[in-house]
Write a structure and sequence with these properties.
By secondary structure, the protein is mainly beta. Among the domains are: 3-40 and 48-176 and 798-842, no CATH class; 225-316; 495-652. The protein contains three helices and 44 strands. It has a 36-stranded antiparallel barrel. Strands 10, 11, 13, 14 and 17 form a five-stranded antiparallel sheet that branches. A hairpin with a 3-residue loop joins strand 37 and strand 38 (715-731). The radius of gyration is 32 Å and the shape is globular. The two termini are 38 Å apart.
């Protein structure tokens, strides 16, 4: 499009603006709500804005419009209407926040003035609006997420452009009848694990009841696709705090669930303990880049050698999504009995592809729960799934009962059977136990206030050979028998004893698998309030003797293992805490009459706060594996494998206006073979510095280094070093000025190929200046100073000059240039430039 054409269209824009300015009603789109006239304590502010753009695009016009959905290659218009409200409205409504209608909802938008383009509105009824029903509404809309300059949870200033964010919630709720809600939801069917569980949707959900009858209903668009990181049991902790790069991004905000699980080392489908983590308190989540960074390191094992897993589940965004509709009816024939049935159907979008948790096309379920007085309760749930593209049905069943008929005796029983191909919406915690039938029986008897006896039995059976989950090439059957006794004599001394037996067989052919394991577990521990320099002191000693016997010639040899672990804790004062664990495990191969493996493991954690403005944390983890043979020494030479992990973190406020945060982490694995050695090292360094000079001027700096070095048959190394600098300044007529500089340095070395390095620089500038009381100038620039390969190659320049009346309107004229210059894909390059005019009516 020629310059003449652009000027011609711009003339048309000026005529349209003149016509709109002449209309007396345009400036009255929003009115001031006068509380004195309407007898309500409510303030309303609002404005409407119209932007018209005429752009000349050279290069790939299709790529330009795909990258800038709200713009066209010749002429485009966009509008916004906003309102701010605060106070009490009529009919007992409390209103607070800002609302907006925008023509670019769901699209990218660029602006250097983000403060006025937001929605965060809540409406609550202070009294029932009808009968016992109350209304609650919340909304969040953020079209300006081009650069999240204040997000220090991720790399400073390196956020690529991201589509607008829209989250809405409207709810009607009654204590007598239940609730109805719509918007961005994560609903679950009550008392059900097999049907609907915390699935992200944009739609509606209802949970209504009247007397003994109730109904739950759900319908809407499934937001993204669910995914569980790592194996079916999660990501193995490695003694560091991450970061953990997720397989998919962007992540649906608020959909993630992060927890730490300790699992049985002999059968990882058994969960020993679970700790749920909370965002911003225990970890930082970068939804855009897909990254989790824990605040504190997580040890790879418990003191008794059980593995620790970090379980991260989330829903990730994709271009197309399926729809879901279904319901659950329930009836309560008796006060303590509830019976229900549910059905869910998924409408498949052929373009909604992506890896992750597969979901069924049809899902049918039923469940029942009951309670007998205050001593016995139980449940039964069954579900059947019909997967897309198959004619087969897959089922899941669980049942359980818990009874405390006698005051000191507690009994429980649980049964669960889940087919390998069973699917749900979407409880990924079922994955570790799919393709299994599990029966658990247990009981606790409180002998005295300090003594307790326990007994348990488990039968765990595989359902299919070589299934997707719990893959074994035989039908595995495991029986576990457990007896335990615990006596907490005093705070200073307590002890426990457990006896366990595990039998593992192939149900069809005992010649393929037939072994058993006897284990004796003993522990002793206690704590002291004050032990000299140690302050509060605690100790726990654990001992295990494991006798493994194989009844067939295949597989592992008969072996005896002795394991001893000692954990010491000390709190010398309020500002210091120390924890140290040392473990030794020694295995004897009875067939070869030799010690074939020894494990020496050390865990250490030190927290120290020498000053009110200084916090430090240091952790260390060391594992050493050796084969002593016939000679066991205090320190065994010639290890076959070692693992090291360590973290040091510090938070320091040297002055009132300065805050510094630093973290250094390393994980290293080495393994020795007869003729070679392998080594893998991962390093992570993070530093943040913030300086508030005055309320007009502040500085931010952040640096992050990630390094992966692998020495196998071929040596390889990857390094990424990001450095971000930012300054914020506003003073007098300089309404706002933000300048940022990003430097990314990358190295790739895959021998025998030559080493490749690259340096990239991105400059960000934005500001607004008041020339006079009414005239203003503002502009923004994003420029790639050194055009090396980057994830985000789009640059832009914008300059705007305008007139801002003190009451009714604001009008501005500007120039905009958007460019993409990617060396790898030259056919996708484009340059778009032109003029725009913006008219705003305000109140």
């Amino acid at each position: 499009m020629s310059l003449k054409t652009i000027l011609g269209k711009f003339g048309l824009i000026i005529v349209l603006l003149a016509f709109m300015a002449a209309q007396p009603t345009y400036a009255k789109i929003f009115e001031w709500y006068d509380s004195s006239k309407n007898h309500q304590d409510l303030l309303l502010l609002g404005f409407g804005e119209l932007t018209m753009q005429a752009l000349d695009v050279s290069g790939n016009e299709k790529a330009f419009e795909e990258a800038n959905p709200s713009l066209k290659a010749d002429f485009s218009t966009n509008y916004r209407l906003s309102m701010f409200a605060n106070g009490n409205a009529t009919h007992g409504f409390l209103v607070n926040g800002a609302a907006i209608i925008d023509s670019r909802i769901g699209e990218e938008y660029q602006t250097i003035d983000p403060s006025i383009f937001r929605l965060k509105m809540s409406v609550e009824s202070t009294e029932p609006i009808w009968d016992t029903w109350r209304f609650t509404g919340r909304g969040l809309y953020d079209p300006n997420r081009q650069w999240e300059l204040e997000n220090l949870d991720s790399r400073l200033l390196t956020q690529p452009q991201d589509p607008a964010r829209l989250e809405l919630l409207m709810r009607l709720e009654s204590e007598d009848y239940g609730l109805i809600e719509g918007g961005s939801l994560r609903p679950s069917f009550k008392n059900s694990k097999f049907t609907l569980h915390q699935r992200s949707i944009f739609g509606a959900y209802a949970d209504l009841h009247s007397g003994p009858v109730g109904v739950e209903a759900v319908g809407g668009k499934l937001e993204g696709k669910a995914y569980r990181e790592g194996t079916s049991v999660g990501l193995r902790a490695d003694g560091t705090s991450g970061p953990f790069d997720l397989t998919h991004a962007p992540v649906t905000r608020g959909s993630e669930e992060v927890k730490i699980e300790v699992r049985d080392r002999f059968n990882e489908t058994i969960v020993i303990s679970t700790q749920m983590l909370t965002r911003d308190i225990d970890y930082n989540m970068d939804y855009l880049l897909g990254r989790v960074l824990l605040h504190q390191p997580v040890a790879s094992e418990s003191p008794t050698a059980d593995p620790v897993y970090i379980v991260i589940t989330y829903d990730y965004l994709r271009d197309e999504n399926d729809e879901i509709v279904g319901g659950r009816g329930k009836i309560t024939p008796l006060d303590d009995v509830q019976v229900s049935g549910s059905y869910l159907h998924r409408f498949t979008d052929n373009e909604a592809s992506g890896t992750g948790e597969a979901e069924p096309e049809n899902l049918l379920g039923a469940d029942c729960s009951f309670k007998v007085q205050n001593h016995t309760s139980g449940y039964v749930e069954v579900a059947g799934a019909e997967n897309q593209g198959t004619n087969a049905d897959y089922s899941a069943l669980r049942a359980g009962i818990e009874s405390n008929v006698i005051d000191n005796l507690k009994l429980n029983a649980d049964f669960q059977r889940i087919d390998d191909q069973f699917r749900s919406f979407t409880n990924s915690d079922l994955n570790p136990t799919k393709n299994q039938q599990r029966l658990f029986l247990g009981g606790d008897y409180q002998l005295t206030s300090k003594q307790k006896a326990t007994a348990a039995f488990a039968d765990i059976r595989g359902l299919e050979e070589n299934g997707q989950y719990n893959t074994f090439d035989y039908l595995r059957n495991e029986n576990i028998y457990l007896l335990g006794y615990r006596n907490d004599l005093t705070n200073k001394l307590g002890f426990g004893l457990k006896l366990e037996r595990r039998d593992i067989k192939d149900r069809n052919n005992a010649a393929l698998a037939d072994n058993y394991q006897n284990r004796v577990m003993a522990d002793i521990g206690g704590s002291f309030e004050n032990v000299g320099l140690l302050g509060q002191f605690g100790y726990v000693a654990n001992y295990e003797m494991i006798m493994f016997r194989n009844e067939i010639q295949l597989g592992d040899h008969d072996a005896n293992t002795n394991q001893l672990a000692l954990t010491l804790t000390s709190k010398p004062g309020e500002n210091a805490a120390i924890k140290l664990t040392q473990r030794l495990a020694l295995r004897n191969d009875r067939k070869l009459d030799t010690y074939d493996e020894r494990q020496d493991v050390t865990f250490a954690t030190v927290q120290y706060r020498p000053h009110v403005n200084l916090n430090t944390l240091a952790t260390y983890e060391y594992k050493r594996y050796t084969a002593p043979g016939g000679s066991v020494q205090l320190w065994q030479d010639d290890p076959s494998r070692t693992q090291r992990a360590g973290t040091f973190a510090v938070e320091y406020l040297p002055l009132q206006k300065i805050k510094a945060v630093g973290k250094v982490g390393r994980h290293e694995t080495r393994q020795w073979f007869a003729d070679s050695t392998t080594r893998a090292t991962e390093d992570f360094v993070l530093g943040q510095l913030t300086y508030f000079h005055t309320h007009h001027l502040s500085f931010n700096a952040e640096s992050e280094l990630r390094r992966k070095d692998r020495e196998y048959s071929v040596h390889s190394c990857d390094k990424i070093w990001d450095l971000g600098l930012k300054v914020n300044w506003n003073r007098d007529r300089l309404n706002e000025f933000t300048a940022g500089l990003i430097r990314r340095w990358q190295l790739q070395n895959y021998m025998p190929n030559p080493e490749v390095t690259s340096s990239s620089y991105i400059l960000l500038l934005s500001g607004s200046v008041s020339v006079s009381r009414e005239l203003f100038i503002r502009g923004s620039v994003k420029s790639i100073l050194l055009n090396a390969p980057l994830d985000d190659q789009k640059t832009f320049t914008r300059l705007e000059v305008g007139y801002d009346s003190q009451r009714w309107y604001r009008v501005s004229l500007g120039y905009e240039r958007i460019e993409s210059d990617i060396d790898l894909y030259p056919d996708r390059n484009y340059t778009g430039q032109g003029l725009f005019v913006r008219f705003t009516g305000k109140m």
